[in-house]
Request: fold
Amino acid sequence: LGQIPLPNYNNNEQGIIVVDIEVDKNGNVISARAGGKGTTIGNITMRKEAEVAAKRAKFSKRNSWNVCFC
Reply:
């Protein structure tokens, strides 16, 4: 697992946002979708920011990961 950038939330809501991502063969995130199983925050703005942060991440070579911004 590589560096995971933190989202820049402008909200104090507490909970969990699970982001399902797809990683290419070079470790770049090519797809990120917030709201995976276990997500407890419905705030769309916070979910979008979690997706943006996930897309900035760099991972070791693998097909997919589940990332939780708790």
